[in-house]
Design a protein that fits this description.
By secondary structure, the chain is an all-alpha fold. It has a domain of about 140 residues. It has 9 helices and no strands. α4 runs antiparallel to α5. The radius of gyration is 22 Å and the shape is globular.
């Protein structure tokens, strides 16, 4: 009987791809569940971020949308600027080479070109004035930010080997949250009336309220 059970266990592990890798599979499940838990935070921060943009002058919103659309068209139909992306990420890796864990996090999370454009904005503003350049910089920062996000997602997906892609979704959510909070910070400095605090605060409230509602729906007796 014991031998039969071992045979059945081996067949089961082989069927689901767990043989010799049960620990990794359990970790992947845990990461996948954690990704689902974080999903309302991603939705909440994104929702408030977009609401902030809709309150801006129409040309600011248009430049942001055109930047995202332009990159998506370029990525899908023309080419994927991987060389440009890789060059920027190598610079990030060298800048943070003094601390390996921070280097890996910064390599995936920090959008170099959007950050450089944010710094350059102040130089050009001093030369040309706010009204003459703000639309261009919103476009460029948005374009490079979405480029970084999409190419990082492709890179993380290539690294992920699990069936559930738990590590992929969890890493992508952390990259996305870091980047949208960073871009919110940039825009709060260069755009009048754009709040950095609101996306974080209201996004967190949406996250908490969503999980409270789910808990009450399934676990609280009426």
């Amino acid at each position: 009987m014991a031998r039969q059970e071992l045979v059945e266990k081996a067949e089961f592990e082989k069927a689901v791809g767990l043989k010799g890798n049960l620990g990794s599979f359990i970790i992947s499940i845990f990461k996948f569940i954690l990704s689902i838990i974080l999903l309302p935070l991603v939705i909440g921060i994104t929702k408030v971020f977009l609401q902030q943009l809709y309150r801006q002058p129409q040309y600011i919103l248009n430049n942001f949308v055109f930047a995202v659309a332009t990159y998506l068209i370029l990525h899908i139909f023309v080419c994927q600027p991987r060389s440009l992306y890789d060059f920027g990420q190598r610079i990030i890796g060298r800048l943070f080479s003094f601390f390996v864990p921070l280097r890996r996090a910064a390599y995936h999370c920090l959008p170099l070109y959007a950050t450089l454009l944010f710094i350059l904005y102040f130089v050009f503003k001093a030369i040309f004035g706010y009204g003459n350049i703000i639309g261009y910089f919103v476009f460029l920062i948005s374009f490079t930010a979405i480029m970084h996000l999409i190419l990082t997602a492709a890179y993380l997906k290539g690294e992920s080997l699990g069936v559930l892609k738990g590590d992929y979704f969890l890493s992508l959510f952390f990259v996305y949250l870091f980047e949208i909070i960073l871009i919110s910070g940039f825009l709060s400095v260069i755009l009048k009336g754009f709040s950095f605090v609101d996306p974080v605060k209201d996004g967190y409230n949406f996250f908490v309220n969503t999980h409270i509602s789910i808990w009450r729906q399934f676990f609280v007796l009426k």
